[in-house]
Amino acid sequence: MPDPSPFANVLHTETIAKLARSSVLERGRSYVNRVSGLARTEARLSARVQGGGLYAVAIWVKGDRLGYVCTCPAGENGEFCKHCVAVALAWVDKAGAGG
Predict the structure, then answer these.
(1) Looking at CB atoms within 10 Å, which of 12, 20, 28, 45 has the fewest?
(2) Phi and psi (nearest 5°) for 91?
């Protein structure tokens, strides 16, 4: 049985779709295969995503919501960017059946 994750009740495809604009969501889906080093420590996910550069992404549980950061320009402006989408979708896929 998988280790219970703090993301199980928060990180789902529906949540990802709400956080990302539709164009960003589509681009993020195409970046899932560019995610490397996906890891969870307590209530924090971290990974790298290869895009125009190599970007560091972190996603964490913040109460019943998600916090996130990416080192790309959009992420540094506080957006749930395509790299965040890719990491979140990679985690959902890894966790199976939506988290």
Answers:
(1) 12
(2) -65, -45
- Low-confidence stretches of the chain (pLDDT < 50) are 1, 97-99
Whether the CB-CB separation of 13 and 66 falls below 8 Å is answered with no
C-alpha separations of 86 from 1, 3, 16, 30, 63 in Å: 25, 22, 10, 8, 22
CB–CB of 8/69 below 8 Å?
Answer: no
Tokens 């009740």 belong to 9
pLDDT digits (tens, 9 = 90+) for 83-96: 999 999 999 998 87
Q: Cα 39 from chain centroid?
A: 11
**47: its two tokens:** 């990974």
pLDDT for 3 equals 52
Whole-prediction pTM: 0.90
Which parts of the chain are beta strand (E)? 35-41, 44-50, 54-62, 65-70
In the numeric block, the tokens 């190599």 are attached to: 54
